[in-house]
Amino acid sequence: MANAETTPGLNFIRSIIEADIRAGRNGGRVHTRFPPEPNGYLHIGHAKSICLNFGLARDYHGLCNLRFDDTNPGKEDVEYVDSILADVHWLGFDWADRLFYASDYFEKLYEYAEHLIRTGKAYVCALSADQIRTYRGTLTEPGQDSPCRERPAEESLGLFRRMRAGEFADGAYVLRARIDMASPNLNMRDPVLYRIRHEGHHRTGDRWCIYPMYDYTHPISDALEGITHSICTLEFEDHRPFYDWVLDNLPVPCHPQQIEFARLNLSYTVMSKRKLLELVDKAYVRGWDDPRLPTIAGLRRRGYTPEAIRDFAEKVGVAKRESMVDMALLEHCLREDLNRRAPRRMAVLRPLKIVITNYPEGRVEEVEAENNPEDPAAGTRWLPFSREIWIERDDFREDPPKKFFRLSPGREIRLKHAYYIRCDEVIKDAEGRVTELRCSYDPESRGGWTQDNRKVLGTSHWVSIAHAVDAEARLYDKLLSVPDPSAEKEQKDFKECLNPGSLEILSGCKVEPSLARAKPGGFFQFLRQGYFCADPDSTPERPVFNRSVTLRDSWARIEKSQQEK
Ligand code: ATP
Ligand code: MG
Q1: Which position among 5, 37, 331, 388 bears the catalytic label?
Q2: Residues with CB under 6 A from ligand 1
Q3: pLDDT 10s digits, 399-422
Q4: How many CB atoms lie within 10 A of CB 149?
């Protein structure tokens, strides 16, 4: 799987911009925009575009606008507008006073449309959508002129005004550009500029019953805002001639340059808004912010930091060629960030009880634990230690395989920051399931070290039973069980590729007392278990933690070598 084709910081878009600045084009100005359609939540692909557009503005002392491309009534919603504003801010970018809506330009767009009609560059067409498609021709055959193509400008103008006035039903007429029905580029064969839609809009209400098409709206919006570099994804490359045609044929204030780059594709997930909407609507996931989704809201809830996402966007870079980026790279960026910053905590996800038989009953002592070995400034905290503790069930095997370096009968291990313990006895229930271990501790090993420096096989994390807080942990795995459903031999619906094990809920976790106060969004490294963050579902009585990403998984290696034996 490839990622960057150019080194970050010196990609082809920057080369173009630097050449423009050197040539004094646009008076040396750099003005970009991020133009989402408010018909869904933003995802990691949008984050790449946001980092790119706002990043260029920052690096070249320019500006970046946030503009909603809201030309599709019905599919768009203020819920999406609000989530997009929140997500862009959360990623660390700011549009200052430059928040725009394409719908704010509806009047201007209408005037420009009349201008095109008057100059013979547009006409009102009565063909149905199906007919227009048939008349358009194919890649190998030229299109056929619409019978309305030679309609006099005055007549088109009259009809267009009556379209606006609401005299016609949906689909009765459209306004089309008059370009070239034989153009090798299908987008130039008299594309539709306006259609009739008797439908309310989330901002303009019922003021309009004709709506401009995206391809017509976008270049004009860019020009009205003084955009210099209009950066979009590769599927718009074939639309660029029309982008330029619109601007060349209208008295707009400037002519921005459209530049295309390859969209971000990420393995083991879906990035199309349509698919994401389907997963949310049909409750395959718990909402737009489900931590399994690649939405910004989902990543945030999962425990991703803006720093990690920005770093990821930088690392994947921009290229002209489509590629699939490995999900592991995104996870790597998060680990790097959290390794530096996340406080270390003890949390036992699948608890097994230990009674330390030679430790005095009723005694509690405090042991000192460092908060982050990567960050001396993070300091230490005190953890209560007592006769009864929880350890991880996985940290014990009655019949240990060869490479199992943890507790088993007769063996000694270190309890992190506390003492050495040795397993003396295994207690089981009627079904033979281990319910408790009886151990003895070495009082000389306080802090987890002994005078004779004797070696132990492993170190376990633990929590004192009397002081533990009950918690829930939500462990996430890949959303899809294959990297790319469209590359599967038998073409399947992407929903058939959903990973049934993408969410595991552990409700009986035991965590150290300080975690009861974890604020939603607060992130931690649970020793040996991964990076976790507190979920908004948390209460002080019962905190809930999402596993953001695992640590490097040595456990999987042990399992594997065991299977091989
Ligand atoms: P659709 O148009 O199908 O609703 P979209 O993903 O194109 O979906 P937009 O809201 O139009 O969504 O996208 C806003 C901006 O984000 C556009 O400039 C688009 O090119 C960019 N963008 C969208 N998806 C990606 C992606 N996967 N990688 C990079 N940029 C993207
Ligand atoms: Mg789009």
Answers
A1: 37
A2: 35-37, 39, 45-46, 48-49, 232-233, 263-264, 271, 273
A3: 999 999 999 999 999 999 999 999
A4: 15
Domains of the chain: 12-261 (3.40.50.620), 273-343+472-564 (2.40.240.10), 347-461 (2.40.240.10)
Separation between Cα atoms, residue 69 and residue 219, nearest integer Å: 11
CA distance 293 to 299: 7
Partner residues linked to 544 by β-bridges: 472
Ligand nearest to the CA of 40: 1
Residue 246 and residue 223 in contact, taking contact as beta carbons nearer than 8 Å: no
* Mean pLDDT value across the chain: 94
Are 513 and 364 in contact by the 8 Å Cβ rule? The answer is no
CA distances from 80 to 36, 39, 85, 153, 230 (A): 10, 6, 9, 40, 23
Rounded distance, CA 190 to CA 183, Å?
9
| Angle between the N-to-C axes of helices 306-316 and 44-59, in degrees from 0 to 180, rounded to the nearest 10 | 80
Give dist(CA 69, CA 214) in Å, integer: 8
Q: Per-residue pLDDT for 558 more than 70?
A: no
Active-site annotation holder among 14, 240, 273, 474: 273
Ligand 1 probe mutation, 218, 233, 320, 324, most atoms within 8 A of CB: 233
